[in-house]
Write a structure and sequence with these properties.
By secondary structure, this protein is an alpha/beta fold. The protein is about 35% helix and about 15% strand.
């Protein structure tokens, strides 16, 4: 068998060394040099082994993740088309559970975002701060369509950013925050608006000035809402000086004093002027409080397109007004088709005389409504606060 000559020997001979007869210091120097090289090689081998172990561990992890993704793609729920999954969400979501659905996966979040039925609820911001607005908008996105606000916190930034809002309710403290609005409220999709501000008790005469200034007396609140059709104002003071609205667009209008109805029941002195600005009105709902004031006017207003008139008249305080003409004396509705009268009362010994007088008032009004087809009257016995 041939003997392999070590590389060190070959290198030594090539360097001119014969039979290792070099001086001792040269040999020691060579030994030190090769020890250094050997040490470096051993460190490199150790590092390579460590890197190899990392690569093997990484490969194992990737293989496991790949297996999970393979299982996910083969999952029966994954095979459901988005239309069917959307229907499942509609039937299963309730009590805010849609918040959990959007966090399951990107696929579920996408399907949920494209299912407006599960977002069709009133959003009632509580303890809201300006910093919370981006989170709400990110969660709801284009599905933020219905907002009910009644607490004294930050609502103006939400309204200014909520371009998708279709229905808006501002109640009590939510109304006072409109004082912070500057310029237009751009609400391109708004269809239904309710503003309700309670009237103070009659004994609070000293605070009446502050009440009248609830929205400020300098600039009115301007709503740029080209799709607005339904308007509910439960507001005791001058409406026209507080809000600039597209009156000619309104088809459904509800007006009266704010709950509770044991307040003074004061209405705006220019209510008839408001009605005169509603040429396309088809539905009118009027609430009369316990102590509502009569409207004095010598002018007759004709609501040419009105089809439905509903009056909620507490104890017939509106229709039983004898000293001064009531609002029906000032209105004409030639195309009226349905009339509803709701009479809440806490007086169980309510006599017939108020009904007799009210019926005479109604007959006079009905004579001008030749298209009337239906009259409904409901008496509700209740305990008023």
């Amino acid at each position: 068998m041939a003997t392999t000559i070590p590389d060190i020997v070959l290198r030594s001979r090539s360097d001119g060394l014969r039979d290792f007869d070099a001086p001792t210091e040269v040999v020691e120097a060579e030994k030190a040099k090769y020890r250094t090289e050997l040490s470096a090689l051993e460190e490199e081998i150790k590092a390579t082994r460590a890197h190899l172990q990392y690569l093997e561990a990484r490969a194992t992890h990737v293989q496991q993740v790949l297996g999970l993704w393979t299982v996910a793609l083969q999952s029966p729920i994954r095979q459901l088309p988005p239309e069917l999954l959307s229907r499942i969400f509609v039937f299963s979501c309730g009590d805010g559970r849609f918040h959990a659905i959007v966090r399951v996966s990107k696929y579920w979040r996408h399907v949920a975002k494209e299912t407006p039925q599960i977002w069709d609820h009133w959003v009632m911001p509580m303890n809201l701060s300006k910093a919370d607005i981006p989170a709400i908008l990110n969660l709801y996105g284009k599905n933020l369509t219905r907002v009910h606000h009644s607490t004294p916190n930050c609502i103006v930034p939400l309204l200014q950013a909520g371009q998708s809002i279709r229905s808006l309710r501002l109640v009590e403290s939510g109304v006072t925050l409109l004082r912070d609005v500057e310029g237009l409220l751009e609400m391109p999709l708004l269809e239904d608006l309710l503003i309700s501000y309670p009237e103070k008790a009659e004994e609070d005469e000293e605070e009446e000035v502050e009440e009248d200034d609830v929205l400020g007396s300098v600039l009115p609140i301007v709503f740029n809402a080209p799709r607005l059709r339904s308007l509910s104002l439960y507001f005791p003071t001058d409406v026209l000086s507080r809000f600039l609205l597209p009156w000619d667009q309104i088809t459904h209008f509800s007006y009266g004093p704010s709950p509770p109805l044991n307040a003074r029941g004061r209405i705006s002195s220019n209510l008839l002027e408001v009605l005169q600005r509603l040429p396309n009105l088809t539905y009118l709902h009027f609430i009369a409080g316990p102590n509502i004031q009569s409207i004095r006017s010598q002018h007759i207003i004709t609501l040419s397109n009105l089809r439905v008139l509903e009056i909620n008249d507490h104890s017939l305080r509106l229709l039983n007004t004898r000293k001064e003409p009531n609002i029906l004396c000032c209105l004409r509705a030639p195309l009226l088709e349905r009339f509803d009268l709701i009479i809440p009362t806490g007086d169980r010994e309510f006599g017939f005389e108020p009904y007799n007088y009210a019926s005479r008032q109604l007959k006079s009004f009905f004579r001008t409504s030749s298209q009337l087809q239906q009259i409904r009257v409901a008496l509700i016995l209740c305990t008023m606060p």
